[in-house]
Design goal:
This protein is α/β, with parallel strands linked by helices. It folds into two domains: 145 residues, Rossmann fold, CATH 3.40.50; 82 residues, SIR2/SIRT2 'Small Domain' (2-Layer Sandwich). Helix content is 33%, strand content 19%. The strands form two sheets. The chain has a six-stranded parallel beta sheet with strand order 3-2-1-7-8-9, with helices on both faces. The longest helix has 14 residues. 39% of the residues are buried. It binds ligand BJW. Ligand BJW binds next to helix 1. The site of ligand BJW has 36 residues, from helix 1. It is found in: Cytoplasm.
Length: 238
Amino acid sequence: MSGSRNIVVLTGAGISAESGVDTFRDEGGIWSQVRLEDVATPEGFAADPVRVQSFYNARRAQLPLVEPNPAHFALARLEREFEGSVMIVTQNIDDLHERAGSQKVIHMHGELKKALCCACKKSFPHESDLSLEEACPKCGQVGTLRPDVVWFGEMPYQMDRIYDLLRHCDLFLSVGTSGNVYPAAQFVQEAGQHGAHTIEINLEPSLGVSDFEDTRHGKAGELLPIFVDELLTGSYHF
Ligand code: BJW
């Protein structure tokens, strides 16, 4: 067995694709339906908050209609059964890792089921539609709530903790991310420079594929359960 070793798993939209959640940059993906400048920047929100609220309300409303897939369940199993530590750093704002049973999950780009008050900066659980008529339950101001997600130009969450994990992991596994968006796109370099073995599992080679020591290309829902078996039986060496 692998002993007390540390694994960091970076996940992106591709891990939720087989659950029926749209990715961003694949054909027919979210950025072919809406302009990212309109819905995923603070400037887009300032220009048309109603449009941005309804974009995220629609994505939040989809959550009860989708289920975790075998890739999410494989990572939950890895966390339960691996002798060392397994931490998921997800760029996804859905809740499919948690619903599959993963407990150690960092949502670096925020969560659909949370709201953030632009006035008092407090974040809190919010599972229903957001509107500009609503008052912040923390400070009482009306019209100040936004989805608690990280837009372009904003600082992703828990970066100090994530870099600490990357510097101390033995295996860095990236699943279902195209490598277009920073800082997540350079996590592989950070982990690799600090001695981690690095592997990518993605439908196709990501932009950063040459930074990985090992790659497996295909569907996460098919490849990840096999890879987790290899990790748990010790047949994958790192
Ligand atoms: C499958 C599959 C299957 C399909 N199985 N695989 C130049 C250099 C460096 C940085 C910058 C730069 N210019 C600008 C920046 C900064 C900017 C940035 O990265 N811009 C790029 C466009 C260049 N980044 C930021 O602004 C970030 N903040 C920041 O940098 O702060 C400063 C800082 C610096 C240093 C350290 C720390 C901080 C914030 C980025 C916020 C991104 N926000 C979004 C929206 C979040 C809310 C929402 O969901 O709406 O996050 S954008 C969107 O992209 C979303 C995703 O999390 C993110 C990544 O997308 P992802 O997950 O990779 O999805 P896709 O669709 O791109 O890829 C899916 C992949 O899955 C594909 O490869 C498929 O093949 C694959 N796939 N089916 C396996 N079944």
